[in-house]
Amino acid sequence: MKKIKLNPKAVLGQIHVYTGAGKGKTTAGLGLAIRAAGSGKKVAIVYFDKGGLLYGERNILPKLKPHIRFWVTGLIRFVPGKPFRFGVTTADKKEALRGLGIVSSLFKKKYDLVICDELATAAGLKMIPVAKVLRLMKTKPNSVELVLTGRNCPKKILAAADLVTEMKLIKHYFYKGIPARQGIEF
Ligand code: ATP
Ligand code: MG
């Protein structure tokens, strides 16, 4: 096995991707946000593609200000009891670009951890060009730890990341008829 030389001066600045078809990507990002905030880090979360305030965390995050701040972009995908809205429209693309603009502006504001939730999904669905996401990753200040989440992450983004974790779908209760539940799935 290759011997790894650890860098004792390592600071923030790594790029994580949480992808895959299993559950746990967005909540892993949120868990990291809480850990970082609890350690005195300044955290920003930018939500892509899933708009609205339906998701439980978006109702508690305002109470974590100024430790964690968040921005919601994207149109509504899901209303309980109704089918998920699939497909990509011009309006979805416009919202994704707006989200990317927010992330760029946050790079100038001394955040320690920036989480781009569902940005990998947006790139995988061609809602946003992969080249723009790669540029964002390149222009990230060295001191910012960046997290991208979402299924079907394009290979070039995976290649440019420092950490890639795949949530592998082994079982999901959805397939035995359990619908998305408030507080667990959203
Ligand atoms: P979470 O937000 O719970 O961490 P996630 O970010 O990994 O999940 P997404 O791809 O954003 O998952 O999907 C949102 C929700 O859809 C998840 O809470 C999840 O339980 C549900 N889901 C994930 N995979 C499947 C699947 N294969 N079939 C049906 N529903 C799924
Ligand atoms: Mg998610």
UniProtKB/TrEMBL annotation:
InterPro entries: CblAdoTrfase_CobA, P-loop_NTPase. SUPFAM superfamilies: P-loop containing nucleoside triphosphate hydrolases (SSF52540). It holds the Pfam family CobA_CobO_BtuR. GO terms for biological process: cobalamin biosynthetic process. GO terms for molecular function: ATP binding; corrinoid adenosyltransferase activity. It comes from the Bacteria. PANTHER family: CORRINOID ADENOSYLTRANSFERASE. This is Cob(I)yrinic acid a,c-diamide adenosyltransferase. It comes from Candidatus Komeilibacteria bacterium RIFCSPHIGHO2_01_FULL_52_14.
